[in-house]
Protein backbone atom coordinates (compact mmCIF):
# COMPACT_ATOMS: atom_id res chain seq x y z
CA UNK A 1 0.00 0.00 0.00
CA UNK A 2 2.85 2.36 0.89
CA UNK A 3 4.50 1.68 -2.44
CA UNK A 4 1.24 2.41 -4.22
CA UNK A 5 0.86 5.78 -2.44
CA UNK A 6 4.44 6.73 -3.30
CA UNK A 7 3.85 5.82 -6.94
CA UNK A 8 0.71 8.01 -7.10
CA UNK A 9 2.63 10.93 -5.53
CA UNK A 10 5.33 10.58 -8.14
CA UNK A 11 2.75 10.64 -10.93
CA UNK A 12 1.21 13.77 -9.45
CA UNK A 13 4.55 15.48 -9.23
CA UNK A 14 5.33 14.50 -12.80
CA UNK A 15 1.97 15.83 -13.95
CA UNK A 16 2.59 19.10 -12.13
CA UNK A 17 6.01 19.36 -13.69
CA UNK A 18 4.65 18.71 -17.17
CA UNK A 19 1.87 21.19 -16.60
CA UNK A 20 4.32 23.85 -15.47
CA UNK A 21 6.47 23.18 -18.52
CA UNK A 22 3.47 23.58 -20.76
CA UNK A 23 2.56 26.86 -19.08
CA UNK A 24 6.10 28.09 -19.49
CA UNK A 25 6.03 27.13 -23.16
CA UNK A 26 2.78 29.01 -23.68
CA UNK A 27 4.22 32.04 -21.93
CA UNK A 28 7.28 31.94 -24.16
CA UNK A 29 5.07 31.70 -27.22
CA UNK A 30 3.07 34.72 -26.13
CA UNK A 31 6.23 36.76 -25.53
CA UNK A 32 8.11 35.79 -28.70
CA UNK A 33 10.10 38.76 -29.98
CA UNK A 34 8.54 40.49 -33.00
CA UNK A 35 10.21 40.21 -36.39
CA UNK A 36 13.13 42.56 -36.82
CA UNK A 37 12.27 45.89 -38.42
CA UNK A 38 14.89 46.86 -41.00
CA UNK A 39 15.90 50.38 -41.93
CA UNK A 40 14.70 50.96 -45.51
CA UNK A 41 17.13 52.20 -48.14
CA UNK A 42 16.79 52.84 -51.87
CA UNK A 43 19.51 53.41 -54.48
CA UNK A 44 19.17 54.55 -58.06
CA UNK A 45 21.49 55.51 -60.89
CA UNK A 46 22.35 59.02 -62.05
CA UNK A 47 21.16 62.43 -60.90
CA UNK A 48 17.53 61.80 -61.85
CA UNK A 49 17.69 59.18 -59.12
CA UNK A 50 17.14 61.93 -56.55
CA UNK A 51 13.58 62.57 -57.72
CA UNK A 52 12.97 58.87 -58.33
CA UNK A 53 14.12 58.07 -54.80
CA UNK A 54 11.67 60.62 -53.41
CA UNK A 55 8.81 58.69 -55.01
CA UNK A 56 10.12 55.35 -53.80
CA UNK A 57 10.61 56.68 -50.27
CA UNK A 58 6.94 57.66 -50.03
CA UNK A 59 6.21 53.94 -50.14
CA UNK A 60 9.14 52.68 -48.09
CA UNK A 61 8.53 55.20 -45.29
CA UNK A 62 5.00 53.83 -44.89
CA UNK A 63 6.33 50.26 -44.57
CA UNK A 64 5.39 49.52 -48.18
CA UNK A 65 7.11 46.86 -50.24
CA UNK A 66 10.39 47.31 -52.04
CA UNK A 67 8.66 46.03 -55.19
CA UNK A 68 6.06 48.80 -55.17
CA UNK A 69 8.73 51.35 -54.31
CA UNK A 70 11.04 50.57 -57.22
CA UNK A 71 8.20 50.47 -59.73
CA UNK A 72 6.82 53.84 -58.67
CA UNK A 73 10.28 55.36 -58.41
CA UNK A 74 11.37 54.61 -61.96
CA UNK A 75 7.97 55.49 -63.40
CA UNK A 76 8.64 59.11 -62.50
CA UNK A 77 11.64 59.15 -64.83
CA UNK A 78 9.87 57.16 -67.55
CA UNK A 79 7.20 59.87 -67.74
CA UNK A 80 9.57 62.85 -67.83
CA UNK A 81 10.07 64.11 -71.41
CA UNK A 82 13.12 66.09 -70.32
CA UNK A 83 15.03 62.92 -69.45
CA UNK A 84 16.24 61.88 -72.87
CA UNK A 85 17.51 58.42 -72.02
CA UNK A 86 14.45 56.82 -70.44
CA UNK A 87 10.85 56.40 -71.59
CA UNK A 88 8.80 59.28 -72.98
CA UNK A 89 11.09 61.74 -74.76
CA UNK A 90 13.90 59.22 -75.07
CA UNK A 91 16.12 59.49 -78.12
CA UNK A 92 14.98 57.15 -80.91
CA UNK A 93 16.81 54.46 -82.83
CA UNK A 94 18.27 55.19 -86.26
CA UNK A 95 14.84 54.60 -87.82
CA UNK A 96 13.27 57.27 -85.63
CA UNK A 97 11.43 54.83 -83.38
CA UNK A 98 11.48 55.09 -79.60
CA UNK A 99 11.86 51.54 -78.32
CA UNK A 100 11.89 50.82 -74.61
CA UNK A 101 13.38 48.05 -72.46
CA UNK A 102 12.67 47.26 -68.81
CA UNK A 103 12.74 44.52 -66.21
CA UNK A 104 11.67 44.02 -62.61
CA UNK A 105 12.53 41.43 -59.94
CA UNK A 106 11.15 40.84 -56.45
CA UNK A 107 12.36 39.16 -53.25
CA UNK A 108 10.91 35.79 -54.28
CA UNK A 109 12.86 35.70 -57.56
CA UNK A 110 9.76 36.52 -59.59
CA UNK A 111 10.83 38.31 -62.77
CA UNK A 112 9.27 40.16 -65.69
CA UNK A 113 10.74 41.91 -68.70
CA UNK A 114 9.91 43.69 -71.95
CA UNK A 115 12.22 44.66 -74.80
CA UNK A 116 11.78 46.72 -77.95
CA UNK A 117 8.43 48.00 -76.67
CA UNK A 118 6.95 50.95 -78.60
CA UNK A 119 4.16 53.44 -77.80
CA UNK A 120 3.84 52.59 -74.09
CA UNK A 121 5.03 55.21 -71.60
CA UNK A 122 5.63 52.85 -68.67
CA UNK A 123 7.45 49.69 -69.76
CA UNK A 124 8.31 48.89 -66.12
CA UNK A 125 4.63 48.41 -65.33
CA UNK A 126 4.19 46.21 -68.38
CA UNK A 127 7.16 44.16 -67.18
CA UNK A 128 5.46 43.73 -63.81
CA UNK A 129 2.30 42.55 -65.57
CA UNK A 130 4.40 40.01 -67.46
CA UNK A 131 5.82 38.85 -64.12
CA UNK A 132 2.49 38.60 -62.34
CA UNK A 133 -0.01 37.66 -65.04
CA UNK A 134 1.76 35.44 -67.58
CA UNK A 135 3.67 32.14 -67.49
CA UNK A 136 6.60 33.91 -69.19
CA UNK A 137 9.38 36.23 -68.07
CA UNK A 138 10.00 38.29 -71.22
CA UNK A 139 7.89 39.70 -74.04
CA UNK A 140 9.38 41.65 -76.94
CA UNK A 141 8.43 43.95 -79.79
CA UNK A 142 4.89 43.83 -81.11
CA UNK A 143 4.00 40.96 -78.79
CA UNK A 144 4.85 43.09 -75.79
CA UNK A 145 2.88 46.00 -77.26
CA UNK A 146 -0.23 43.89 -77.89
CA UNK A 147 0.00 42.48 -74.38
CA UNK A 148 0.20 46.00 -72.96
CA UNK A 149 -2.92 47.06 -74.86
CA UNK A 150 -4.78 43.99 -73.60
CA UNK A 151 -3.87 45.00 -70.06
CA UNK A 152 -5.29 48.48 -70.49
CA UNK A 153 -2.14 50.49 -71.24
CA UNK A 154 -2.65 53.46 -73.57
CA UNK A 155 -0.90 53.82 -76.93
CA UNK A 156 1.02 57.10 -77.04
CA UNK A 157 3.53 58.82 -79.29
CA UNK A 158 6.77 58.80 -77.30
CA UNK A 159 8.85 60.77 -79.82
CA UNK A 160 8.89 64.38 -78.63
CA UNK A 161 9.59 67.31 -80.94
CA UNK A 162 13.08 67.91 -79.56
CA UNK A 163 14.10 64.26 -79.86
CA UNK A 164 12.76 64.13 -83.40
CA UNK A 165 14.69 67.28 -84.33
CA UNK A 166 17.94 65.88 -82.96
CA UNK A 167 17.40 62.60 -84.78
CA UNK A 168 16.91 64.40 -88.10
CA UNK A 169 20.13 66.33 -87.47
CA UNK A 170 21.90 63.04 -86.77
CA UNK A 171 20.67 61.63 -90.07
CA UNK A 172 22.74 64.25 -91.91
CA UNK A 173 25.93 62.61 -90.66
CA UNK A 174 25.20 59.11 -89.37
CA UNK A 175 28.87 58.52 -88.55
CA UNK A 176 28.55 60.88 -85.62
CA UNK A 177 29.16 58.97 -82.41
CA UNK A 178 27.71 60.33 -79.18
CA UNK A 179 29.71 59.65 -76.03
CA UNK A 180 28.56 56.90 -73.70
CA UNK A 181 27.26 59.02 -70.84
CA UNK A 182 23.97 60.27 -69.47
CA UNK A 183 23.63 62.85 -72.24
CA UNK A 184 23.55 60.04 -74.80
CA UNK A 185 21.72 57.25 -73.06
CA UNK A 186 21.44 55.84 -69.67
CA UNK A 187 19.30 53.59 -67.69
CA UNK A 188 17.64 54.26 -64.43
CA UNK A 189 18.29 51.22 -62.28
CA UNK A 190 16.77 51.17 -58.80
CA UNK A 191 17.24 48.68 -55.94
CA UNK A 192 15.60 48.85 -52.52
CA UNK A 193 15.44 47.20 -49.12
CA UNK A 194 12.14 47.58 -47.24
CA UNK A 195 11.22 47.49 -43.54
CA UNK A 196 10.50 43.76 -43.75
CA UNK A 197 14.04 43.11 -44.94
CA UNK A 198 13.01 42.26 -48.50
CA UNK A 199 14.83 43.39 -51.63
CA UNK A 200 13.51 44.24 -55.09
CA UNK A 201 14.81 46.02 -58.17
CA UNK A 202 13.74 47.70 -61.41
CA UNK A 203 15.60 48.81 -64.51
CA UNK A 204 14.25 50.82 -67.46
CA UNK A 205 15.66 52.68 -70.48
CA UNK A 206 15.12 53.88 -74.02
CA UNK A 207 18.55 52.49 -74.81
CA UNK A 208 21.44 53.78 -76.82
CA UNK A 209 20.62 56.79 -78.98
CA UNK A 210 20.35 55.99 -82.70
CA UNK A 211 20.92 52.28 -82.14
CA UNK A 212 20.07 49.78 -84.86
CA UNK A 213 16.38 49.00 -84.84
CA UNK A 214 15.92 45.89 -82.75
CA UNK A 215 19.03 46.38 -80.62
CA UNK A 216 18.56 45.32 -77.00
CA UNK A 217 21.00 46.19 -74.25
CA UNK A 218 21.41 44.86 -70.74
CA UNK A 219 18.51 46.70 -69.11
CA UNK A 220 15.74 44.14 -69.69
CA UNK A 221 17.98 41.12 -69.07
CA UNK A 222 17.79 39.59 -65.61
CA UNK A 223 21.35 38.88 -64.49
CA UNK A 224 22.84 41.59 -66.69
CA UNK A 225 21.08 44.90 -66.01
CA UNK A 226 19.48 43.74 -62.76
CA UNK A 227 19.66 40.92 -60.24
CA UNK A 228 18.15 40.33 -56.80
CA UNK A 229 18.88 37.53 -54.34
CA UNK A 230 16.92 38.12 -51.15
CA UNK A 231 19.41 36.12 -49.09
CA UNK A 232 22.40 38.18 -50.25
CA UNK A 233 21.69 41.50 -51.97
CA UNK A 234 20.80 43.26 -55.21
CA UNK A 235 22.64 45.03 -58.01
CA UNK A 236 21.86 47.00 -61.15
CA UNK A 237 23.94 48.38 -64.00
CA UNK A 238 24.06 51.37 -66.30
CA UNK A 239 26.14 52.31 -69.30
CA UNK A 240 27.27 50.32 -72.33
CA UNK A 241 24.88 47.39 -72.25
CA UNK A 242 26.86 45.10 -74.52
CA UNK A 243 29.73 45.04 -72.02
CA UNK A 244 27.43 44.40 -69.07
CA UNK A 245 25.83 41.46 -70.89
CA UNK A 246 29.29 40.08 -71.68
CA UNK A 247 29.98 39.46 -67.98
CA UNK A 248 26.40 38.96 -66.73
CA UNK A 249 27.29 41.97 -64.62
CA UNK A 250 24.58 42.35 -61.97
CA UNK A 251 24.50 38.63 -61.25
CA UNK A 252 28.28 38.70 -60.91
CA UNK A 253 28.09 41.51 -58.36
CA UNK A 254 25.56 39.61 -56.24
CA UNK A 255 27.59 36.41 -56.40
CA UNK A 256 30.69 38.29 -55.29
CA UNK A 257 28.74 39.62 -52.31
CA UNK A 258 27.78 36.03 -51.56
CA UNK A 259 31.51 35.26 -51.36
CA UNK A 260 31.98 38.01 -48.79
CA UNK A 261 32.80 41.06 -50.93
CA UNK A 262 31.39 44.37 -49.77
CA UNK A 263 28.92 45.99 -52.21
CA UNK A 264 31.57 48.49 -53.30
CA UNK A 265 34.29 45.89 -53.84
CA UNK A 266 31.89 43.61 -55.68
CA UNK A 267 31.05 46.47 -58.08
CA UNK A 268 34.74 47.24 -58.49
CA UNK A 269 35.57 43.63 -59.36
CA UNK A 270 32.80 43.56 -61.98
CA UNK A 271 34.17 46.74 -63.57
CA UNK A 272 37.65 45.23 -63.63
CA UNK A 273 36.27 42.17 -65.41
CA UNK A 274 34.92 44.42 -68.16
CA UNK A 275 38.26 46.20 -68.46
CA UNK A 276 40.09 42.87 -68.66
CA UNK A 277 37.89 41.71 -71.52
CA UNK A 278 38.32 44.97 -73.45
CA UNK A 279 42.10 45.34 -73.15
CA UNK A 280 42.47 44.04 -76.67
CA UNK A 281 40.14 46.87 -77.74
CA UNK A 282 41.96 49.68 -75.93
CA UNK A 283 40.64 52.48 -78.11
CA UNK A 284 37.11 51.15 -77.67
CA UNK A 285 37.55 51.04 -73.90
CA UNK A 286 38.18 54.78 -73.85
CA UNK A 287 34.60 55.32 -75.02
CA UNK A 288 32.93 52.69 -72.82
CA UNK A 289 31.29 53.68 -69.56
CA UNK A 290 29.70 51.17 -67.19
CA UNK A 291 28.61 51.72 -63.61
CA UNK A 292 27.20 49.34 -61.01
CA UNK A 293 25.36 49.99 -57.77
CA UNK A 294 24.70 47.34 -55.15
CA UNK A 295 23.13 46.79 -51.75
CA UNK A 296 23.46 43.85 -49.40
CA UNK A 297 20.97 42.33 -46.98
CA UNK A 298 22.34 44.45 -44.13
CA UNK A 299 21.55 47.65 -46.01
CA UNK A 300 25.18 48.42 -46.85
CA UNK A 301 25.63 49.86 -50.33
CA UNK A 302 28.35 50.73 -52.82
CA UNK A 303 29.19 51.57 -56.41
CA UNK A 304 31.97 51.55 -58.99
CA UNK A 305 32.38 52.61 -62.61
CA UNK A 306 35.02 52.65 -65.37
CA UNK A 307 35.45 56.39 -65.95
CA UNK A 308 34.69 59.39 -63.72
CA UNK A 309 31.31 61.02 -64.21
CA UNK A 310 28.88 58.39 -62.96
CA UNK A 311 26.81 59.20 -59.89
CA UNK A 312 24.02 57.57 -57.97
CA UNK A 313 21.37 58.60 -55.43
CA UNK A 314 20.79 57.05 -52.00
CA UNK A 315 17.82 57.63 -49.72
CA UNK A 316 17.94 56.24 -46.18
CA UNK A 317 17.12 57.45 -42.66
CA UNK A 318 19.65 60.27 -43.04
CA UNK A 319 17.98 61.69 -46.15
CA UNK A 320 18.40 61.69 -49.92
CA UNK A 321 21.83 62.39 -51.42
CA UNK A 322 23.71 62.21 -54.71
CA UNK A 323 27.07 60.42 -54.54
CA UNK A 324 29.86 60.32 -57.12
CA UNK A 325 30.73 56.76 -57.97
CA UNK A 326 34.34 55.70 -57.58
CA UNK A 327 36.08 54.92 -60.87
CA UNK A 328 38.95 52.76 -62.09
CA UNK A 329 40.36 55.49 -64.31
CA UNK A 330 41.02 58.96 -62.92
What would you note in describing this structure?
The chain is of the alpha+beta class and about 325 residues long. The protein has one domain (about 40-325): Glutamine Phosphoribosylpyrophosphate, subunit 1, domain 1, CATH 3.60.20. About 35% of the residues lie in helices and about 20% in strands. Strands 4-3-2-6-5-1-11-12 form an 8-stranded mixed beta sheet. The chain has a 4-stranded antiparallel beta sheet with strand order 7-8-9-10. Strand 3, helix 4 (about 125-135) and strand 4 form a beta-alpha-beta unit. The longest helix is centred in the first third of the chain and has 29 residues, at about 1-30. The protein starts with a helix and ends in a 6-residue tail after the last strand. InterPro entries: Ntn_hydrolases_N, Peptidase_T2. One of its GO terms (cellular component) is cytoplasm. This is Asparaginase.
Amino acid sequence: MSNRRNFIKKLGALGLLLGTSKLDLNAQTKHTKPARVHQPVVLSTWRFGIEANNEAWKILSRNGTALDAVEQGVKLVEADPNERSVGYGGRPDRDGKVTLDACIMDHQANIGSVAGLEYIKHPISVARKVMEETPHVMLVGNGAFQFALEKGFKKENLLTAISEKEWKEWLKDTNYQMPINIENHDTIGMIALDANGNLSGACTTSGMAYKMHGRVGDSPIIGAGLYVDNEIGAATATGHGEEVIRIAGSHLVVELMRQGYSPENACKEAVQRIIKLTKSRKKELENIQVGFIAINKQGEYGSYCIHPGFNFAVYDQTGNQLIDGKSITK
